[in-house]
Amino acid sequence: MTGLFITFEGPEGAGKSTQVTLLAEWLRARGLEAYTTREPGGTPLGREIRRLLLSQDMSAETEYLLYSADRAEHVRKVVLPALEEGKIVISDRHLDSSLAYQGYGRGLPLDWLRQVAAGAVGSLRPHRTILLDLPPEAGLARLEQHDRLEQEHLEFHQRVRGGYLQLARGEPARYLVVDATQSQQAVQAAIQQALLPMIEEL
Predict the structure, then answer these.
(1) What is the pLDDT of residue 148?
(2) 24 touches 61 (CB < 8 A)
(3) What gap in Å lies between CA 100 and CA 93, rounded to an integer?
(4) In b/e form, how buried is each residue of 120-134, taking b as 16+ CB within 10 angstroms?
(5) What residues does each domain of the chain span?
(6) Which of 144, 147, 154, 178 has the most C-beta neighbours closer than 10 Å?
């Protein structure tokens, strides 16, 4: 049996971690095996990379290559083995984050990002991507502390949000865009309703 790979994306403060947890709980209540993880930091090596990424100043190219190293390890050590076991893997961020942040946000060429990603993740693609969308000023206002990326100027976060929406328009069959200004319960209800047909086929 092949598993299901679901990713959550969105700007800072969108509530991804909360919605990942709520979705996993809903799936488990239906008797399904749901495994939650995140990028960066879903492996022991990834946690070290995450610490560097969120604390050290670096070039945009170095930043992306570190994310790609984390992603390569994560895919091979966590995601693919769980999918091969037939589990539903729910990841807080994946490749689309890099396209939005390092591509649209930092201005790195999308073609180069995708070329590097081809080596990092191979042919793996999410079956469904949930984009929690909200204005960046609203998301940033929800945060109590700010890491290196969260401290970027508002224009950067606006480019990231625009990049996500552009990616979603390019792949409407994979992306589900949810208004993250709603309550946690309303957001989760929209996610469950959209995923139900896919879940019922498992």
Answers:
(1) 65
(2) no
(3) 11
(4) bbeebebbbbbbbbb
(5) 4-37+82-200
(6) 178
- Whether 145 has a pLDDT exceeding 80, the answer reads no
What's residue 1's pLDDT?
A: 45
| CA trace torsion 79, 80, 86, 91 (10° rounding) | 20
Both tokens of 135, joined, read 């204005």
Angle (CA) 37-39-42 rounded to 5° is: 50
Pick the CATH number of 4-37+82-200 from 1.10.3720.10, 2.30.110.10, 3.40.50.2300, 3.40.50.300: 3.40.50.300
Classify 142 in phi/psi space as left (phi over 0), alpha (psi -120 to 50) or beta.
alpha
Block residue for tokens 């019922």: 200
**Whole-angstrom distance, CA of residue 63 vs CA of residue 59:** 6
User: Nearest Cα to 11, choosing from 146, 201, 138?
Assistant: 138
Q: Which helix (H) or strand (E) holds 7?
A: strand 4-9
Q: 136 Cβ partners below 8 Å, 6+ apart? A: 11, 12, 154, 157, 158, 160, 161
Residue pointed to by tokens 């959209």: 194
As a whole number of angstroms, the distance between CA 179 and CA 187 comes to 7
Q: Is the pLDDT of residue 19 over 50?
A: yes
Beta bridge partners of 151: none
